[in-house]
């Protein structure tokens, strides 16, 4: 899952108390040590024989890989995927970019030559494959590789990540010829192709001629990996701190060649250490892409280094992932089962204060259960804006309009005195960077809703209908994800001030597993992940069907971790299942889902997951950017970043001596 490899911000406690200017002063004071810090990687000699201006150096957010010699990407393991393995070596049938895609094409037929073809009832999927693609050892890629991959995964569902999905969905898979694959499904599924479609990752295709020779494929280390991508493994640190990939001499025999020759001759993925070291390394031009750092670190780096820049040219700099951090409520608990209670909790939140406390204002807020990124503003946010303005709630005593369409503008205005011209003034730019509206903080309306739900306030404290105190524990990942912990801490404070005793419980390793098993009350997490570049919501929404809902306290499969159940929700999901992936009706059904969600508020959306990726243009130009060319996600652990390689060009800068 993405949470296993998405970079944690990794700040120390004292980092969170420092302003950007204070951090910048720290870096200036450390100038005497910059040379030594910048030479740390050189001292390891990991780039021996490779000119600095021929290699792109990117951060591996997994840090030091625990089993660096295992390149079997199909098996469960703690890390070792974002080493360049999935970005440069692997390939699969299709990609959907989270942003605008190369040449403005979000969908890319990669190993497949066309989009998937389904029969009339979506019980059969036919795939036509590209010809002329070769594995890095010179063997032709064919339909036999796809058939072997599916059959091998399905035969060992406990040994492979995607084994259970293949076993549950595929009745049979065959290759009528070398460029055709036919899947017969156990039940109709108009979204089965999603298994082979990259959002962040996907089911990668195995080389049959390699894995077919081993007795136990799930135990095979696949070292060195045989690649379909445009790069092959050159070397790696046996201690797991760096991996170097080299451009294939026959890169023309890969799917990426349709877009041109990859620019970097070499790409290195490294563990650069803690946030402060990442900043110093990039200042010294020893780290071309910082995957993620603290907001303060990004602000300081961009301010101090003329060649460093983020996704946005100005504030908030960060790239908004198609993921939506939320206050995930466990709706199977009696205290959260009444929508009036859930709405009351939402109306007690001051989103502007949460934004400032968590992201220092560099967040993109969202009032609806869709990330405000990719193509979603076009398909959902703009069309739904008037509906949100007109939306009303009956508090039991009056009718209110809870939506404030100016919240993003107000956040920008709050930041402008200190950030100056870094804050955009154009309303569209503000909506893109900071979001549109959110729910008004309204303690009076919240109190009326709680009373409507049968709660009573006694001596300043809210009591549940059974007479027990209304308390809430919000689980967080603590210092592993401090931005979300900050948000949770402030929300708990706001609820407590309103008379609902609340606290956070920092669980760096157990928060997600507790949520999966229904052992949480509320969590700072997400249950919404979308394609980003494609408006279809089934990536997360299909899993919210009640057929997948577990009993209280039992393991809940992804992604309905709020454990919400509603007959209308099931009806919408079932209608989406029955239409084609690109059918405009799917978007209309997505809007109906948003309306149902807003009315019920099963969990409380907050903001996009903004990643502070910082890129250095000393040696390379052509990085994606929000304003000039948003062709792909710059966050370097996403598999989609393979497309960045054909856009990156050397600047001609000579290596520093």
Structural class estimated from helices and strands: alpha+beta
Mean pLDDT: 91
Tell me the β content: 15-25%
Distinct helical segment count:
22
Number of strands: 29
Distance between the termini: 42 Å
Q: Mind summarizing the main beta sheet?
A: 5 strands, mixed
Q: Level of helix content?
A: 25-40%
Radius of gyration: 25 Å
Which regions have little confidence, pLDDT < 50, spanning 5+ residues? 1-44
- What strand order characterises the main sheet? 23-22-24-15-25
Task: Estimate the global geometry from the Cα principal axes.
Answer: globular
Explain what the structure shows.
The chain is of the alpha+beta class and 657 residues long. It has a 5-stranded mixed beta sheet. It has a 4-stranded mixed beta sheet with strand order 1-11-10-9, with no helix packed on it. A hairpin with a 5-residue loop joins strand 9 and strand 10 (242-247). The longest helix has 17 residues, at 584-600.
SSE map:
Layout: H1 2-5, H2 20-29, H3 34-38, H4 40-44, E1 55-59, H5 85-89, E2 94-96, E3 107-109, E4 117-118, E5 124-128, H6 143-155, H7 163-169, E6 170-177, E7 180-185, E8 197-198, H8 208-211, E9 231-236, E10 242-247, E11 266-270, H9 275-283, E12 289-290, H10 295-304, E13 308-309, E14 319-321, E15 326-329, H11 339-347, H12 351-359, H13 376-390, E16 393-394, E17 399-400, E18 403-404, H14 407-419, H15 427-434, E19 438-439, H16 443-452, E20 456-458, E21 461-463, E22 471-476, H17 482-497, E23 501-506, H18 511-516, E24 522-525, H19 538-541, H20 567-577, H21 584-600, E25 604-605, E26 609-611, E27 614-616, E28 620-621, H22 644-647, E29 649-650
Parallel strand pairs: 1-11, 2-8, 22-23, 22-24
Antiparallel strand pairs: 2-3, 4-5, 5-7, 6-7, 9-10, 10-11, 12-27, 13-27, 14-26, 15-24, 15-25, 16-17, 18-19, 20-21, 28-29
Helix pairs in contact: 2-10, 6-7, 9-10, 11-16, 12-17, 14-15, 20-21
């Amino acid at each position: 899952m993405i949470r296993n490899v998405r970079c944690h911000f990794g700040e120390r406690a004292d980092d969170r108390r420092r302003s950007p200017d204070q951090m910048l002063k720290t870096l200036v004071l450390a100038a005497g040590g910059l040379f030594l810090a910048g030479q740390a990687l050189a001292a390891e000699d990991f780039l021996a024989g490779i000119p600095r201006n021929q290699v792109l150096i990117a951060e591996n957010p997994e840090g030091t890989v625990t089993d660096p010699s295992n390149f079997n990407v199909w098996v469960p393991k703690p890390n070792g995927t974002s080493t360049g393995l999935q970005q440069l070596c692997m390939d699969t049938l299709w990609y959907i970019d989270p942003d605008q895609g190369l040449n403005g094409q979000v969908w890319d037929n990669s190993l497949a030559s066309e989009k998937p073809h389904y029969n009339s009832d979506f019980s059969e999927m036919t795939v036509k494959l590209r010809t002329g693609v070769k594995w890095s050892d010179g063997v032709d890629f064919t339909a036999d590789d796809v058939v072997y991959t599916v059959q091998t995964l399905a035969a060992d569902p406990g040994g492979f990540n995607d084994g259970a999905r293949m076993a549950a969905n595929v009745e049979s898979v065959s290759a009528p010829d070398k460029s055709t694959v036919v899947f017969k499904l156990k039940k109709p599924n108009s979204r089965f192709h999603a298994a082979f479609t990259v959002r962040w990752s996907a089911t990668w295709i195995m080389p049959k001629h390699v894995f077919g020779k081993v007795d136990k494929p799930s135990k095979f280390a696949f070292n060195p990996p045989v690649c379909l991508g445009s790069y092959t493994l050159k070397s790696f640190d046996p201690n797991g701190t760096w991996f170097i990939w080299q451009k294939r001499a026959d890169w023309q025999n890969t799917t990426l060649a349709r877009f041109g020759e990859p620019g970097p001759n070499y790409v290195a993925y490294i563990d650069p250490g803690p946030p402060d070291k990442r900043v110093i390394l990039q200042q010294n031009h020893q780290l071309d892409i910082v995957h993620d750092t603290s907001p303060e670190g990004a602000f300081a780096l961009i301010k101090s280094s003329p060649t460093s820049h983020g996704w946005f040219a100005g504030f908030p700099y960060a790239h908004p992932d198609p993921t939506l951090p939320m206050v995930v409520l466990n709706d199977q608990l009696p205290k959260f089962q009444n929508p009036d209670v859930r709405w009351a909790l939402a109306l007690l939140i001051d989103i502007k204060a949460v934004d400032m406390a968590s992201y220092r204002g560099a967040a993109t807020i969202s009032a609806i259960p869709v990330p405000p990124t990719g193509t979603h503003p076009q398909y959902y946010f703009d069309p739904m804006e008037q509906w949100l303005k007109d939306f009303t709630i009956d508090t039991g005593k009056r009718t209110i309009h809870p939506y404030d369409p100016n919240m993003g503008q107000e956040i920008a205005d709050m930041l402008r005195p200190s950030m100056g011209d870094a804050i955009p003034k154009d309303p569209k730019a503000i909506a893109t960077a900071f979001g549109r509206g959110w729910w008004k903080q309204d303690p009076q309306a919240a109190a009326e809703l709680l009373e409507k739900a049968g709660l009573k306030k006694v001596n300043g404290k809210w009591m549940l209908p059974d007479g027990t105190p209304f308390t809430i524990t919000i689980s967080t990942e603590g210092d592993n994800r401090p931005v979300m912990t900050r948000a949770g801490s402030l929300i708990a404070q706001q609820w407590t001030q309103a008379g609902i005793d609340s606290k956070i419980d920092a669980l760096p390793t157990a928060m997600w597993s507790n949520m999966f098993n229904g052992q949480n009350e509320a969590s700072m997490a997400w249950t919404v992940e979308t394609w980003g570049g494609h408006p279809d919501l089934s990536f997360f929404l299909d899993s919210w069907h009640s057929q997948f809902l577990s009993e209280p306290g039992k393991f809940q499969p992804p992604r309905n971790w709020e454990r919400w159940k509603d007959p209308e929700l099931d009806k919408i999901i079932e209608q989406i299942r029955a239409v084609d992936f690109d059918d405009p009706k799917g978007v209309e059904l997505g809007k109906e889902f948003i309306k149902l969600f807003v009315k019920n508020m099963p969990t409380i959306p907050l903001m996009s997951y903004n990643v502070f990726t910082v890129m250095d243009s000393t040696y390379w130009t052509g990085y994606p950017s929000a304003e000039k060319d948003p062709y792909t996600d710059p966050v370097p652990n996403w598999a989609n970043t393979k497309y960045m390689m054909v856009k990156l060009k050397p600047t001609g800068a000579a290596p520093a001596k």
